[in-house]
């Protein structure tokens, strides 16, 4: 617990010893002297909680630090770093740490997206830090700028690429003409994707991060179930090719914005104009744009995953929490005071591009445009192109003006019922920024 006398040493407990945990342990031990001067107190790694102490570890890890007695370890700690992942037992351990008066550092985006408000409230009540810079976009410092640097500004929009796996996959599909399955396999070989990539490619990982960003940016509790979520599994080589033809690049975007009606938070593939900086974000890198009323547009770019980048973000939080301990205080607490409504996804407003395969005969375009008109969806452009593999059909690419998602959904359903529409090839959102 903080006292009026500044501590000369602080005990750090590490929960988890995977790739990230190992990197945190390495930094704490190898950079101990530098960290002491930066903090104003010695940071002592007193133990590493693991499920099985007999499992072979990196030579960086001192076996004497390993323990399975997590509760006893937490009881001795001033700062607890949770890198176990998952909901339980991580949630219980974090609550125990908070109750004991320890500051908590976590990279657990799934837990924060599900139970963040309750954890933040517990930390505020206990007067301790709960920091989570590493939970979103790896090494990119995005949480602290939103919570602190822009605390006196009004954020209007946060959008970006927050999942390195999907960005790598889409990048390979775009640059090297790989099929989706080929690009995923390559990502797995390089360690960018898990053996089961579902959380990444279905957008769930990005949605958890979007929930965190929206909650912070708009001072409103946004849960993961509030985030519209669509992954990249339906993106085809044809979609990528047509995007190139129209001067766009397909990216999986997390978009959080405040409108006059409330908060919108969503994750989905989108056509990004090639001239926009997000279109050039390659490989497993992440990039986040913040649009603020006074600061204007800010971009944060860097490595979004990996042991060392994530450990860097954790160490930033750890040093900050340690300095607060030395100064007998704690950092920014929860700020979900606005309590703004979170919009249903059907109320989301954006532009769309619909690619159809239609009968190649007179009168078809009239029928298509009539459907859009009936559902109050305004057409911006229509492009027709031959379909080489079917002489009696043609491609029709319709780009709309900004409209509500529920109106577009009704339009697509009506198009499917038209006899002249052979196939709806794709429906992609267009982000014009």
From TrEMBL:
<feature type="domain" description="ACT">
    <location>
        <begin position="353"/>
        <end position="429"/>
    </location>
</feature>
<keyword id="KW-0915">Sodium</keyword>
<dbReference type="InterPro" id="IPR019811">
    <property type="entry name" value="HDH_CS"/>
</dbReference>
<dbReference type="GO" id="GO:0009088">
    <property type="term" value="P:threonine biosynthetic process"/>
</dbReference>
<protein>
    <recommendedName>
        <fullName>Homoserine dehydrogenase</fullName>
        <ecNumber>1.1.1.3</ecNumber>
    </recommendedName>
</protein>
<comment type="pathway">
    <text>Amino-acid biosynthesis; L-methionine biosynthesis via de novo pathway; L-homoserine from L-aspartate: step 3/3.</text>
</comment>
<comment type="pathway">
    <text>Amino-acid biosynthesis; L-threonine biosynthesis; L-threonine from L-aspartate: step 3/5.</text>
</comment>
<dbReference type="Pfam" id="PF00742">
    <property type="entry name" value="Homoserine_dh"/>
</dbReference>
<feature type="binding site">
    <location>
        <begin position="15"/>
        <end position="22"/>
    </location>
    <ligand>
        <name>NADP(+)</name>
    </ligand>
</feature>
<dbReference type="InterPro" id="IPR005106">
    <property type="entry name" value="Asp/hSer_DH_NAD-bd"/>
</dbReference>
<feature type="binding site">
    <location>
        <position position="194"/>
    </location>
    <ligand>
        <name>L-homoserine</name>
    </ligand>
</feature>
<dbReference type="InterPro" id="IPR016204">
    <property type="entry name" value="HDH"/>
</dbReference>
<dbReference type="InterPro" id="IPR001342">
    <property type="entry name" value="HDH_cat"/>
</dbReference>
<dbReference type="GO" id="GO:0004412">
    <property type="term" value="F:homoserine dehydrogenase activity"/>
</dbReference>
<dbReference type="Pfam" id="PF01842">
    <property type="entry name" value="ACT"/>
</dbReference>
<dbReference type="GO" id="GO:0050661">
    <property type="term" value="F:NADP binding"/>
</dbReference>
<keyword id="KW-0560">Oxidoreductase</keyword>
<keyword id="KW-0486">Methionine biosynthesis</keyword>
<dbReference type="GO" id="GO:0009086">
    <property type="term" value="P:methionine biosynthetic process"/>
</dbReference>
<keyword id="KW-0521">NADP</keyword>
<feature type="active site" description="Proton donor">
    <location>
        <position position="209"/>
    </location>
</feature>
<dbReference type="Pfam" id="PF03447">
    <property type="entry name" value="NAD_binding_3"/>
</dbReference>
<keyword id="KW-0791">Threonine biosynthesis</keyword>
<dbReference type="InterPro" id="IPR036291">
    <property type="entry name" value="NAD(P)-bd_dom_sf"/>
</dbReference>
<comment type="similarity">
    <text>Belongs to the homoserine dehydrogenase family.</text>
</comment>
<keyword id="KW-0028">Amino-acid biosynthesis</keyword>
<feature type="binding site">
    <location>
        <position position="109"/>
    </location>
    <ligand>
        <name>NADPH</name>
    </ligand>
</feature>
<dbReference type="InterPro" id="IPR002912">
    <property type="entry name" value="ACT_dom"/>
</dbReference>
<comment type="function">
    <text>Catalyzes the conversion of L-aspartate-beta-semialdehyde (L-Asa) to L-homoserine (L-Hse), the third step in the biosynthesis of threonine and methionine from aspartate.</text>
</comment>
<dbReference type="InterPro" id="IPR045865">
    <property type="entry name" value="ACT-like_dom_sf"/>
</dbReference>
């Amino acid at each position: 617990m903080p006292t009026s006398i500044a501590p000369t040493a602080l005990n750090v407990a590490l929960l988890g010893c995977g790739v990230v945990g190992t990197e945190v342990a390495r930094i704490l031990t190898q950079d101990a002297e530098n960290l002491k001067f930066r903090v104003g107190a010695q940071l002592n790694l007193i133990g590493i909680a693991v499920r099985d102490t007999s499992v072979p570890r990196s030579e960086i890890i001192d076996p004497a630090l390993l323990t399975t007695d997590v509760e006893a370890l937490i009881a001795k700690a001033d700062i607890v770093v949770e890198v176990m992942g998952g909901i339980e037992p991580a949630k219980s351990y974090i609550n125990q740490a908070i109750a004991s008066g320890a500051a908590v550092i976590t990279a657990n985006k799934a837990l924060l997206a599900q139970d963040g408000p309750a954890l933040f409230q517990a930390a505020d009540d206990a007067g301790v830090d709960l920091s989570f810079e590493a939970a979103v976009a790896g090494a990119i410092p995005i949480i602290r700028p939103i919570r602190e640097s822009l605390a006196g500004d009004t954020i209007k929009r946060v959008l970006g690429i927050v999942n390195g796996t999907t960005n790598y996959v889409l990048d390979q599909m775009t640059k090297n003409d790989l099929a989706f399955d080929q690009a995923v396999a390559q990502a797995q070989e390089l360690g960018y994707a898990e053996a089961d990539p579902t959380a990444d490619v279905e957008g769930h990982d990005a949605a958890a991060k979007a929930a965190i960003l929206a909650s912070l940016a708009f001072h409103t509790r946004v849960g993961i179930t509030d985030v519209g979520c669509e992954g990249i599994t339906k993106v085809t080589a044809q979609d990528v090719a047509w995007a190139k033809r129209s001067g766009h690049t397909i990216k999986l975007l997390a978009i959080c914005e405040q409108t006059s009606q409330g908060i919108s938070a969503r994750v989905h593939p989108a056509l990004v104009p090639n001239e926009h900086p997000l279109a050039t974000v390659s490989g497993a890198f992440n990039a986040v744009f913040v649009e603020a009323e006074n600061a204007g547009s800010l971009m944060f770019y860097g490595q979004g995953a990996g042991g060392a980048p994530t450990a860097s973000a954790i160490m930033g939080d750890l040093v900050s929490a340690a300095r607060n301990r030395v100064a007998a205080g704690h950092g920014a607490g929860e700020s979900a005071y606005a309590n703004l409504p979170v919009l249903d996804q059907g109320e989301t407003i954006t532009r769309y591009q619909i690619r159809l395969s239609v009968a190649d005969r007179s009168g078809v375009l009239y029928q298509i445009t009539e459907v859009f008109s009936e559902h109050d969806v305004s057409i911006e452009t229509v492009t027709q192109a031959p379909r080489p593999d079917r002489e009696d059909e043609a491609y029709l690419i319709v780009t709309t003006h900004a409209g509500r998602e529920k109106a577009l959904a009704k339009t697509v359903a009506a198009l499917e019922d038209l006899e002249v529409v052979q196939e709806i090839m794709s429906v992609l959102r267009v982000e014009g920024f």
